User: Which sequence fits this backbone?
């Protein structure tokens, strides 16, 4: 009894064609072995969430693309690895000040007040 390849296998092949990229080049970019890429594409081996997230980065897929493929596990891994597309610099600085061990609580309050005032 033969099993059909998982849906991502066909989608990977289509994306490779779309990008005019070889499977070997994608594997190297994804930092996985070309043998593993071949096994995933043929359906001989299921892609782990981690491997699929690596492949997704190499193929310029988004977490939403992976979720639409039915792989929310890989989407979650990829989302954690990607930079925030719209970071709030004020919130980031305030978070860094709050988590710092180099300032007293009074100094933290003062610095946060300055940052928030300048952000307005």
Assistant:
């Amino acid at each position: 009894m033969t099993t059909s390849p998982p849906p991502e296998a066909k989608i990977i092949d289509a994306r490779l064609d779309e990008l005019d990229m070889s499977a070997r080049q994608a594997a190297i970019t994804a930092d996985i072995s070309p043998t593993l890429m071949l096994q995933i594409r043929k359906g001989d081996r299921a892609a782990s969430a981690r491997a699929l997230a690596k492949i997704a980065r190499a193929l310029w897929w988004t977490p939403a693309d992976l979720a639409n493929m039915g792989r929310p596990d890989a989407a979650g891994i990829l989302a954690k690895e990607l930079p925030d597309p719209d970071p709030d610099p004020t919130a980031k600085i305030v978070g860094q000040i709050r988590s710092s061990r180099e300032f007293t609580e009074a100094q933290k309050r003062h610095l946060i007040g300055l940052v928030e005032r300048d952000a307005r």
The two ends are 66 Å apart (CA to CA).
